[in-house]
């Protein structure tokens, strides 16, 4: 069925395939570790609101300057939401960078994970 040369070539292809799978698994693990440690912070233009989000976009820290008491609650709420969106956008940019460095931004894994994060954060932009 196989001569010595074709068997050797087949075994080499299998070895290459195994190495490729192992390399991709290592890259995916590196991405997962780095992504789990991510956070992003944004501040409102006037500096009255600061929001830090964790790796999944959840609010990890919210700081309101005392001067927010001098403005209507609706204005503060708008600032919080705008600043939260800015922090999440920064998180997505960080994730894009780490994805490019580990699994590759154009890889199937990279595209899938980035799209998933964008969906979870409500940001469907490419």
From TrEMBL:
The keyword DNA-binding applies. It comes from the Bacteria. The keyword DNA-binding applies. One of its GO terms (molecular function) is DNA binding. Keywords: DNA-binding. This is DNA-binding protein YbaB. It comes from Actinoplanes digitatis.
């Amino acid at each position: 069925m196989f001569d010595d040369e074709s068997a050797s070539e087949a075994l080499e292809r299998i070895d290459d395939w195994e190495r490729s799978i192992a390399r991709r698994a290592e890259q995916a693990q590196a991405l997962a570790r780095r992504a789990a440690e991510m956070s992003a912070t944004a501040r409102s233009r006037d500096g009255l609101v600061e929001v830090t989000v964790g790796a999944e976009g959840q609010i990890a820290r919210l700081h309101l300057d005392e001067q927010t008491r001098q403005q209507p609650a609706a204005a503060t709420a708008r600032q919080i939401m705008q600043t939260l969106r800015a922090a999440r956008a920064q998180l997505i940019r960080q994730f894009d960078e780490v994805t490019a460095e580990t699994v590759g931004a154009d890889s199937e894994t990279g595209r899938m994970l980035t799209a998933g994060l964008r969906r979870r954060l409500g940001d469907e932009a490419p």
